[in-house]
Amino acid sequence: MQRLVIHHILPVVFALIPVLAAVLIFVAIPGEARHEYLTRAMANPIDWVIISLGLSLFLIQTILAWKALHWEETSFNERPDRWLTHLAQAAEWFPLLGLLGTVAAILQTFTAIPLDVQPNPREIIRNYGPAITATGSGLFMALVNILPAWMVIAGRYLIRSLAGEAAIVPLTPANPVHVTLLPASRSREGKV
């Protein structure tokens, strides 16, 4: 039973946690704000670029995280680690894409106002919406795309602990720092 849990169930559970976290974060946004965001995001091309790239990257990372959490003969499958690290670093680009969309939407808002006409505040607010959605899309995609690599680190630590192995505390999935924790009985006896 322990083998089934460690080899099959826990990798699936840990790979699904980022998906559940992303859904939970999205659902936690107040309903009116979520509806307004979705309405505006559908009409804003930069949002579609950010969301499609972000979700594609997230799906690939989730699959790689699942593979990285599989316990092989004596250790975890470390082949996906390099890709996970690079893809998690790529998540840093999403806020920049959101900022680019924000600046473009602000420029669009101000160029739509004729210089010889007193601007209507409602029109400015209506035109400013895409700027806010681009920022939100970039931040949300950055947040969810750092979760899979983090879950591999936490999941490996927990799976090793449950398997009774020496704990490994990695700094990044691709560059682990090995720290062997001695059982309490050995450390009290002064044995190293």
Question: What's the quick description here?
Answer:
This protein has helices spanning 2-28, 31-42, 45-68, 81-90, 93-111, 121-163, 184-189. By secondary structure, the chain is an all-alpha fold.
How many helix segments?
A: 7
Which consecutive residue ranges, at least 5 long each, have pLDDT under 50?
175-192
Terminal CA distance reads 32 Å
What is the mean pLDDT? Answer: 81
- What does the largest sheet look like? none
Write down how many β-strands occur, each being a DSSP E stretch of 2 or more residues. 0
Rg, Å, rounded: 23 Å
Q: Give the SSE order as H and E letters.
A: HHHHHHH
Instruction: Please identify the structural class as seen in this structure.
Output: mainly alpha
Summed up, the domain count is: 1
Beta-strand fraction estimate = under 5%
Classify the helix fraction into a percent range: over 70%
Morphology call: elongated
Can you walk me through this structure?
This protein has one domain. It starts with a helix and ends with a helix. The chain has helices spanning 2-28, 31-42, 45-68, 81-90, 93-111, 121-163, 184-189. 73% of the residues lie in helices and 0% in strands. The chain has 192 residues and is mainly alpha-helical. Helix 4 runs antiparallel to helix 6 and helix 5 packs antiparallel against helix 6 (121-163). It is elongated, with a radius of gyration of 23 Å.
Indicate the topology.
Elements: H1 2-28, H2 31-42, H3 45-68, H4 81-90, H5 93-111, H6 121-163, H7 184-189
Task: Name the descriptors.
single chain; 192 residues; mainly alpha; 7 helices; 73% helix; 0% strand; disordered C terminus
